[in-house]
Amino acid sequence: MRLNTAWLDQTDGITKKTTRDFASQTILEEGRKNPNLVVLDADLALSTKTIRFKQTFPDRFFDMGIQEQNMMGVAAGLATCGKTVIAATFATFATAQCYNVIRQSICYPRLNVKIYATHGGISVGGDGATHQMVEDIALMKSLPGMTVLAPSDAQEVASAVHAMCAFEGPTYLRLGRNDEPDIFESVDPFEIGKAHMLLPGDDITIAAMGTMTKAALIAAKQLEKEGIGARVLHCPTIKPLDEDAVVRAARETGAIVSCEEHTVLSGLGASIAWTLARHHPTVMGYVGIKDTFGESGSGQELIEKYGLGVKDIVCRVKEVLEVKKKQDRATVPA
Amino acid sequence: MPDHSERLLRHLERRSAEVRKLVVDAVYHAGSGHIGGALSLTDALVCLYFHHMDYDPKRPDWEDRDRFVLSKGHTCAAMYACLALHGLFPVEELRGLRSTGHFLQGHPDMRKTPGVEFTTGSLGQGLSGSIGMALAARLDDKEYRVYCAIGDGECQEGQIWEAAASASHHGLDNLCVLLDRNGLQIDGPVEEIMSIEPLPKRWRSFGWHVIEVDGHDHDEILRALAVASEVKGQPTCIILKTIKGKGVSFMEGSISFHGRAPKDEEYQKAMEELGAELARIDRLGVTA
After folding, report:
1. Residue B210 belongs to domain spanning
2. ipTM entry
3. Which end of chain B has fewer surrounding CB within 10 Å, N or C?
4. pLDDT per residue over A164-189, tens digit each?
5. What is the CATH number that goes with domain A196-331?
6. DSSP-derived 3-state class of residue B221
7. Beta strands in chain B (DSSP E)
8. Residue B195 contacts by C-beta under 8 Å, 6 or more apart in sequence?
9. Residue A38 contacts B, CB cutoff 8 Å
C-alpha cells in the first residue's frame, strides 16, 4: 500500500471520489468474469449504483423492491444453486432489518452471499438517526462465519470488492455515503484479514477502519509536529481481525487508540481490546460513537459534534499517552 | 388429468402410515419435538417424495432435481422420515433426532443432513429461499421445480407476504407452495390468535393460482400437484386442509401435541394405532 503523500501534505482541495462508483464498477467487472454472479438490490439501485450492473446484465439483476428480508432469503436460495450473490442496500436496512434472515438463511448454512452495504456511519448526514447505521459492524461480526470489511478510499473499495467476490462465504462490505479523498496512491490486491501499517511511529498506535482512516492519518501528521510518534494501523478487515498486526503494534508502541464511525461498544475498538486482553494487555482509548443515536446535520458537522474529528483523535491520543506514562512510571523499579 | 391407480394410492397410504410411525417414534425418543404439524403435513410430503417430485435419492445433489424446502422447519421429523425411507440415511438414525452431535437437528440444517435443501426453523424464511432456487432455475434454463411447505400460523409472518408478492411479480410458475392449514398454532386456534382468513383470497390477490384440497387425500393432493405443474406465468399455492396430529386419535386436533413428545403410554397407544393402520392397508393386499 502506498500512501498518497500529495493528499497527506495538503488535505484540503483534493478531489474526492464516490466509493460506490468504484464498488459498482468492480461488481460489473466481476459480473463479466463470472456468469454466475447475481446482483439483488432493494429499491436503492441508483444510490448503491448497482444500476450499472442492471443495465449491463438485466437478466442477472433483480430489484427486489422494498423487501430487504425477502431479498436476503432469495439471495440465500440463489446461493444454494451455485450463484455468487451480491445483495445491496443501505447498512441500516441490510443489517438491522434483516438480522435473523442473515443469521439463519445465510450465515448458519455458510452460503456465498455478499452483503454490499452503503451509507454506514453517522456522516450520512441529513437523513438523521434512522439512516445513520452505527451498530452494523457489531451485528455482523457477531455472526459465526461472517467476514466483515470496511475499506477506505475508492481504490481500496474496488480491490475489496474483487477480494469479496473471489472469497467463498458470507461477507459484509461496509461503505460510507460521502465521497472520499484518495488516501492511497496505489493499493495491493486486497487481502482479507490483513491490517496495514500506513505511518510508522513508536509512541502510540492509531488503529482505524473505513471512513476514519483518513482522519487517523491527518491526526498522526499533526501529532508528529508535536513530537509524538503515532503509528497508523489501517484495519479494513474487522473480522477476521489481523490479531498479529494488532498485538505487534501494541508491543511496539505500548498504547492504542481505535477510530471508527461506529458504536464504541462493539466495533473495531472492542475487537482490538478483546485481542489485547487475551494476548498483550495494553492501554487503549476509543474514538467512535458513544452509545447514542445520531441526528440530522451535515456529515462533517456531525463528525465533529459526535467526537469523531481529527481533534478528537489527537485529544484521545494525548489522554492515552498520559495513562501510558503513568503506567510506565509505576512499573519502573524504585 | 392423470388417473392414479388404486395400487399407487395404497402404496402412498402405506408410506404415510410408515412415516407417521417413524415421526412418533423419533419424537418420543428425542423427548421433545413437534408431532402435530408433522403428522398433518405427512400425506403431502409422501406425495412429493414418493411420487410427484423428480428426485433421485441415489443422487441427492443432482443439479436438475426438484427441490423441497420445509419452511415450517419444526415439523422436520416427517421430512427426515421420508429421506430415511428413501435411503439417504438408515431409518434407525431417526432415533438420534435432537441428540447432541447427531446430524438430525431439531430444525432442518442443510449442511448437516443429506437431502435437506435449505436451513429453516425461524418461521417465514423458507419461501424466500425457494424463490431464489426458482429464479436460479430460470437463470440456468433448467426445468426443475421448487416446492415449499409453509404453516398456516407461519402466514402471520410478514416475510411470507414479501415473498408471495415477489414470486408472482416474477411469474414463478416453477414454484409451488403447500400450505398446511391445520388451524392450530402454539397459543391456540390460528383464527383466534391472529386471523389469516380469507386465506385463498389473500393468496389469489397476491397473484397466485390457488387450489384447495383435502390434505389427507393422496389422490386430491397428486391432482393438485399435477395442475400446479401445468399452470403458466404464476406460482401455485395448494392449501392443504388438514388435521393437526392426523393419524393418532388422541393427537388429532390437539394443541398440546404441537410441541411436546408423547409420554410412555401415549407412545404405546399411538404406535398400536399406526401399526393397526399399516396392517389394515396390508390386508388390502395392494402394496408396492
Report:
1. 6-283
2. 0.96
3. N
4. 999 999 999 999 999 999 999 999 99
5. 3.40.50.920
6. helix
7. 67-70, 146-151, 175-181, 184-185, 188-189, 209-214, 236-241
8. none
9. yes
